[in-house]
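Blinded run. Sample ID left blank on purpose so nobody reads anything into the name before looking at the predicted structure. Input follows.
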Amino acid sequence: MGGELLAPEAAEPDDVVLTWEGEALLAVRLPQLSDSLDHILAGLERRYGMPLAELDRRAKQSVVRDLEARGAFSVRHGVETVASALGVSRFTVYNYINYANEQRAEARESDERPARGG
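Blinded prediction complete.
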């Protein structure tokens, strides 16, 4: 998702300074997580071949499941950003997240049940 290489002396507190044998060689400035979310959303639009807001409900739920698995909702304003991209309310995104969590829980429960047979 990109990053910027810098001289070690140009590093800011949030940058990562790479050292070798105690000597600072270079610094890496990572993109802000919110920029990464925008990048992920753009990639999903390319994958679906249309704006996310034009997807049907099931496809939007699939997008939310994918984003949830990637930690997109841990980003500040992540739900709002995704809701805007999907053309839905924050409430709807939360409903999609809850639905995905319920589906995962049901799948785990069915995997844990002992098989019947004789």
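Unblinding after everyone has recorded impressions. The mean pLDDT is 88.
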